[in-house]
Batch of 4 targets.
Target 1
Amino acid sequence: MCRNIKPLFNFDPPASEEEIRAASLQFVRKISGFPKPSRANETAFNLAVADISRAASQLLGALESHALAKNREDETAKAMARSARRFGR
């Protein structure tokens, strides 16, 4: 999986459409191998991003969890601490 795609489920507040679209864009970039599509492939690329965004929104809406929702700021702080330990900053 692409390292830039972040988990979007079970957060408070829930993932925004912008976050879902960004994850979908990263996914399509990863599987297509194109950071930016050519004009010939642009329509197919954008359609794939839209389709994956729609599917991801449906998935996130249908999932259930008994765990408490995670706080975005806390999770970001934890990730930054892991990165600092890993890369020595």
Target 2
Amino acid sequence: MKTINRISSSILIVEDDEDDIFILRQGFDELEYSSVSFFTDVISAINYLEVTEDESLPTLIVTDFNLPGINGFQFVKLLKNHPRLLDIPVIVLTTSMSAMNRKLFLDEGVSKVIIKPDAFDQYKLVANDLKKLANNSSLL
């Protein structure tokens, strides 16, 4: 495993639902954590990751499962087969997840699956957990 000294902790989130993006952004804003990049599709996220210097890569990637075009599972497979990206912890944040799909994600190398909450204050807790994990990805 190649060790990369990153400039700081950061999170890349791939989420196509504008309401979820808004609520998550609000949670991060309340935590005064601005090192979050949002993408609404996998292609944009991959293009960004491909041109990002190693030391500026995110310390954590979060993806929704149900995305247009390339879905979250396909995205995870791309990440885990990419030499520069395979060591970045990935979390799936989704509305629902069957036990079989959860197992498939975990077998593919996902660190954690989180079910999207129903209330804003719960989203703030998710944002706080993601911030902590990005700051100390060894917890995953």
Target 3
Amino acid sequence: MNTIIQEEEFRYIESGKGQPLIILHGLMGGLSNFKGVMDYFPEKGYQIIIPELPVYSLPVLNTSVKSLSEFLLKFVDFRDLKNFILLGNSLGGHVGLLFSRNHPELVRGLVITGSSGLYENNMGDGYPKRGDYDYIKKKSEAVFYDSKIATKEIVDEVFESVNDRNKLVRTLALAKSAIRHNMANDLPKMKTPTAIIWGRQDTVTPPNVAEEFNNLLPDSNLYWIDKCGHAPMMEHPNDFNRILQHWLDNRKL
């Protein structure tokens, strides 16, 4: 992966020149989740920028989808970015939706994959059992269709997060904020062209969620990836890139 750039309060990675494409990671998702996109799109005339969202560093009372959207606005102002495409997975999709609702003049196109904002089956029953590595391993594997994608490194990272009290309280605050901040009433008013790329076997945000996003958003296209869970850009990077490229070309973005 590219080196993380640190400027003022912002940490991000960047690659390529051209049309800016800003990527928003999920709650448990690191910057490396988008390696496939990062390797492919700079060659196609896109400037890929992945800011590190302050998921674990905001004051607990201010840890919300709204505050992450406000952080993104500060970042794009700092970098003087306009007319960009936003791509978000899981919680990152939700942040992208809220940002696009509030600042439609800045967003040329939006891509959501496994996004919260309407519904999510958040780690299911009794999340999280701290200290129980096997439980966390099973939950991490359930995010993917192919459980092997949940490498030891990914499971270790999730395990460390739920066993760190500071990270845990912020994780739960964000999960609650995502459920509270339902966007069903906002979506029909949003004109931003949106690609919805979804795993057919997503158990966190099931396929009917993608269909509901597609029904509610006025200018959206829905694409499916089969044998795929909650993170299509990790499980099927080539299919994900092909679909995204097709949509960008069709929409001339």
Target 4
Amino acid sequence: MIAARFGMARLRTLAVTLLACVLPSLATAHPLAPALLQLEERGGGLVDVLWKRSSLSVPGSNIEPVLPPACPATTPATFEEQGVAVLVRWTIDCGTKGLVGQPLRVDGLGPAKIDTLVRIALEDGRSIQRVLRRGEPEMIVPEKAGRFEVFADYLTIGFEHILSGADHLLFVFGLFLLCSAIGPLVKTITSFTVGHSVTLSLAALGYTNLPSGPIEVLIAASVLALAVELARDTENETLMRRYPWPMALLFGLLHGMGFAGALREVGLPQGEIPMALFSFNVGIELGQLVFVLALGIGAAILHRISLPIPLPQRAAVYIMGSLAAFWTIERTVSIF
């Protein structure tokens, strides 16, 4: 393995370098939530439309749904603010043909840098769920979403969520610094994976339903706690340093509830819940694996060059702790 060949010391140096490079983008722990376009047939050709988007936006972006030309609006749009989201509701008339075979599009996804979840409930009870993104902003309403489409969509959502969630990645970064060898690192990362997979599955299936605000505060606090542990003198072996994998398992349970909040925003498709849940989990694990492998690949590159200034591990820990403290305070204030 790359890590075994070049050693944990070089990997830590690489980690510090990477953290310094991405620091400007870590001030916000999560990207904007995906938009939602929901259409529900209710007979007689009438379709109830719900358009939900964040009230925050990237400067210069404006995402808007483009509904079928053959489906004119029959009621004026009503607006409602719900936290940081804006909900717009109205009704359209698609006639006797209904929604099947009609085109749907969302404009502005590229500049906004977000995806849009499309949920469709047909009159005969069938449910269709797709994700529109910058590379594929348009769809034709099919008879029924295929299993492969569900797998691909939710795998992508999970993959993008973990790689854009700076707090989760910083925790993995902290586990990386905590472990002194490859064996403990693999065991610790695996324990973290098991922990968040358990609570993600339980929450997504409705067995647990905790408010997202306190969970996000605790996730930030877990990153801060790990940073404090890493800042301690290594000569004093604490329980966390001696047994990192139980700690990773415990905090993984907490982070899994954060992942579940993201999945709850997206929703699970009727009839394909196990497939969607499985592929979302796979996407998260793939993203986590890419992050860890990036450190290993970078170590191989770093081995061939000489840095003008050596970067101490403590600098990375202080940056990590400062960001975690900022998130903890920010999220606590937002609750009240």
